[in-house]
Amino acid sequence: MGRPRGFETSDALSAITGVFWEKGYEGTSLQDIEAATGLNKQSLYRAFGDKRGMYTAALDGFADVLLANAGPALEAPGTVHERFARFYDFFIKAAASGNRRGCFLCNAATDQAQLDEAARASLQVALEKVLTVFARVIAGDAPELDERTIRQKAEAQLAFYFGLTVLIKAGMPEDTLTAVARQGVAMI
Description:
Layout: H1 9-27, H2 30-37, H3 41-48, H4 51-75, H5 80-96, H6 104-111, H7 117-141, H8 147-169, H9 174-186
Helix pairs in contact: 1-2, 1-4, 1-6, 4-5, 4-7, 5-8, 5-9, 7-8, 8-9
């Protein structure tokens, strides 16, 4: 029987996600991951496999992190427009406080999804989770819409969210981000 792990996998994964989010897959070294987690290579490999496995594990859990942090803005009472406005404001406020990393899912889509089937599959599962929440919020405010229209509106908001996070990462000023977010909300 092997020794029990001396660390929390979820804590290590959170640190790993942070490194990949900040530096991207190619920019992240195993030494970066060791420094962020405080774990040695052997412990990391035992828990997650190789660097690619660590990246995929980070992607697998990120939609849940995103929705846990920003999801309450969508779940709070209000119209669909108010809910999405609060959702986008969450990211604009984070940018105003200095967090301009963009969205890890968006970064992964442009960084690795076209290069790696496992990353692409993890990304698609994560995006589907976000789309499901978006569709539920839209359907709750417009029960007369058919499922296809609801899905299309959710997909448009996902595309808009990705665009907004790219603008955040690019350093656009807060007033521009707010104006852009209002246009996205108006599209619903």
